[in-house]
Amino acid sequence: AQKVTQAQTEISVVEKEDVTLDCVYETRDTTYYLFWYKQPPSGELVFLIRRNSFDEQNEISGRYSWNFQKSTSSFNFTITASQVVDSAVYFCALSAHSGGGADGLTFGKGTHLIIQP
Amino acid sequence: EADIYQTPRYLVIGTGKKITLECSQTMGHDKMYWYQQDPGMELHLIHYSYGVNSTEKGDLSSESTVSRIRTEHFPLTLESARPSHTSQYLCASSFGTSGMVWETQYFGPGTRLLVL
Description:
The structure holds two protein chains of two kinds. Chain A has strands at residues 3-5, 10-14, 19-21, 24-26, 32-39, 46-52, 59-61, 64-69, 74-79, 88-96, 106-107, 111-116.
């Protein structure tokens, strides 16, 4: 069975602070993919990043960075110098072959990030 | 930017009505999905399709049905809406075929359904 845990239900920080969103996953597969999506108040899911299980290099994209550690089954997401526009719900998701038969994504419960001006 | 569309964006309807939620994509993706998301909760897969004439049930049991007559179109139907169906429904699509788990899923804007 697959599982994604986002223990932080809600995080509130002041603008320009750095913030890290945690994601811990469980899977029996050796080949799997991890994703982060952003869901602003308008409701759509915006794709941010995809990472495969064989690539443990950290990735940086502008103010966003991701830290993938297989040893701790974690795929954490950091926003540097946060901005009000970063306010949204962020979902971590997992895709693997043994996903219970359906080829969809397994999502965490999401972290509601609030950036205060 | 993903080209996947959902209509209506918002729907308020009475119990017992039949409704169809539309989803279309112009990216030529073979795989399409429907997810259900209750307020403040995670998404759960309710239906997916590998291509034309293919439909499968997802992890979460749903009273809705889907069809895939055209590659670009994946509508979801509720024959008799009930208040328990109140939720947000998100459609997604990706390249690839069965067993390919690495393809990114791109989501539509969602339909927020309220059944009174």
